[in-house]
Amino acid sequence: MEGVAEVVSESRVAAEPLLKARGLGKHFGPVQALYDVDVDLYAGQVTALCGDNGAGKSVLTKCIAGIYQIDQGQFFWEDHPVHVRSPRDAARLGIETVYQDLALADNLDIVQNMFLGRERLNNGFLNEDDMERSAARTLSSLRVTTVRSIRQPVASLSGGQRQSVAVAKAVMWNSKLVMLDEPTAALGVVQTRMVLDLARRLRDRGLAVMVISHNLNDVFEVADRIAVLYLGRLVVQDRASAFDRQSVVDYMTTGASSRTVQRSDADGGKPGQG
Amino acid sequence: MEASLARAEAPESAPDPTAATEAATLEVPPELVAQSLGEWFRAWTTRIRSGDSGVLPVILGLILITIVFQAISPHHVFLSADNLVNLFQQSAVFMVLAMAEIFALLLGEIDLSIGYAAGVGGAIAVQLVQPTTTRWPWWGAIIAALLGCALIGAIQGSLITRLRLSSLIVTLAGLLILNGVMLFVLGLGPFSGYPSLAGANPNLQFLYQLMWGTIDPTVSWVGMAVIVTALACFLWLGDNRRRQSGLVAPPVSLTLLKIVLIAVVAIVVVAICNINRAAFGTLEGVPWVIPIVLVVFGVWTVLLQRTRFGRYVYAIGGNPEAARRAGVDLAAIRTWCFVFCSLTAGVGGLLYASYLGGMSNNVNGGQLVLYAVAAAVIAGTSLFGGRGKVLHGLLGGLVIGGIYNGMYLLGLDVKPQFIVTGLVLLVAITIDALSRRGATSGSAARV
């Protein structure tokens, strides 16, 4: 059984990471938020980014998303060195971020939200038909089928549905890397399952997915790889099978773990044994 | 290996949708899911009972005003053709100013200066066409007035967006400053502050006709028929195309109902206007002011509902942060909204000058802006941004105009008129706030 699972995950793994970050550093005045962070995000894999409050999870996310500019280090996108200086740069590469607050306008409907900022026009006027068709196609490809009408205002959606709309909005643009910031923080059991399924579906489409989460249940349910930040340093990253709950908690709280789980050394991640 | 095993065995089917679906059913706008007119109507009544009533309260309010004033006005003149046309002319200024204010309200801002912006626009136009002084042609005067108003909006909008000042304070200052500017403009020339539009000069006449000119009855009928037919084709073809390509669309019967409604309203309005309403001689035909107001209504509706600009205005009103992250240039959109707001106020000012037959020191811009805000809010535009339509300006303006006109017919002066208008506004926002609170707490509980 173990062997089968290995083969499945191997077949999905690209040889090189989609996004490789090397030696990232970021400070805000005297406060050093990130020290020498190396992180790899693979296409077709869900990478969970864990860490306690203040560990630097959001700073790292915002650096990748181009909201913050890194002070040291280098990004490699499909093995080419790139600069991510603005959200626009990130979007051009195919990086989309779904923030915790989702950034949806409650008074607009699902289609309007999904196309906000990138409306399709027809002779200068909004091409509603075209946008509605595309939005419907994206939603159904992600199997977001619980909404009654894609013309209903976002205010009338449940938390999980809102999250789904935000994710669908992010993947509409041929994005290759989708980062989800605490996607299940405010959700109930059913809704959480819906969102995690969605993350899996993105992975199965060959996207790189990064999930930032506190919730170890979610992390172990959805992640192929786990990376842990501790006080601004990336203390460990490896495939999820190399961890158990206790070791992740140890890394999150102390930056090290004395526990040894069965290791699979095929991976290039930093070894995590303390 | 536990984690990956669990994942490998996780069901790939869609998540259990029941809970979410039930939650969402309650608040979906009925026209989106209804397949027939009956179903649509039932869903609509459910929605009204749950507090989201759309324009229904303001329509009921209009009917109530009509019944009350028809019953108590002397000789029951409220519904006479003469008075109804008069009512529309009185309402036109409120309507246009309310449509102006909606640009600010949609952003969640307010513009208190539009009353005096209108005053300044009217004063500029009336002064410029005076044959004894500047002798500008009517079109030059109108363009100058509108440009002046747009400039006022651009200055205020820039202060609000670039320096991040409160729109309330900036436009409150604007109210005072523009009051002074209006008095200054009116003081120019030999008119002691009361330049008039009376006289045979064609430029004076043109401005006067904006409100009082009428269109030949035959032309009125033909024009109405052309407009209604065009609108009907547009609605029918649009809805039909959406139905056939499987997009969200209203049922056929609803599209037909809308078209019939538009046609009936248009025919009734033209028929009333084409009754001879003069005590002596002939006075008939649709006043110019009706097409003028409809053009403002149509242009702004298209801008707000069918263009990227309009979409961004609603997005900023709903969630400025979402708009910012979507790459919307918030400062530019906001500034343009204040420009359009003041520009539309300028149109209102031209109509007001025409209504008064000149301009006067006594124009009360402070009162006009309050009526404009009241009109927009009564008809359902939110003071908190993101919700409202240009149509609300039309309907709300009619309510304010109806009260104004009815009180005037009763021979009452401004004292009770102020009180009644204020009370109507209070009732409107109370009903609005209570019903929205009910609706919001419902959806908040599910989030």
Summarize the structure in words.
The complex is a heterodimer of chains A (274) and B (447). By secondary structure, chain A is of the alpha/beta class. Chain A is built from 9 helices and 12 strands. Chain A has a 6-stranded mixed sheet with strand order 6-9-10-3-11-12, sandwiched between helices. In chain A, strands 2-1-4-5 form a 4-stranded antiparallel sheet, with helices on one face. The model of chain A is unreliable at 1-12 and 263-274 (pLDDT under 50). Helix content of chain B is 73%, strand content 0%. Chain B has 19 helices and no strands. Chain B is globular and about 65 Å long. Residues 1-27 and 440-447 of chain B have low confidence and may be disordered. At the A-B interface, helix 1, strand 8, helix 5, helix 6 and helix 7 of A face helix 1, helix 2, helix 14 and helix 15 of B.
H/I helix tally of chain B: 19
Q: Largest interface here, residues on each chain?
A: A-B, 64 and 53 residues
Architecture per CATH nomenclature, i.e. the level-2 architecture of the largest domain in chain B: Orthogonal Bundle
Helix/strand-derived class of chain A? Answer: alpha/beta
Number of strands of chain A: 12
Instruction: Compute the number of strand runs of chain B.
Output: 0
Beta percentage of chain A is 15-25%
Our count of domains of chain A comes out at 2
From the alpha carbons, calculate the radius of gyration of chain B and give it in angstroms: 24 Å
Report, as a whole number of angstroms, the end-to-end distance of chain B.
35 Å
Uncertain regions spanning at least 5 consecutive residues of chain A: 1-12, 263-274
Give the CA-CA distance, first to last residue of chain A: 29 Å
Q: Please state the overall shape of chain A, judged from the principal axes of the Cα atoms.
A: globular
What structural class do the secondary elements of chain B suggest?
mainly alpha
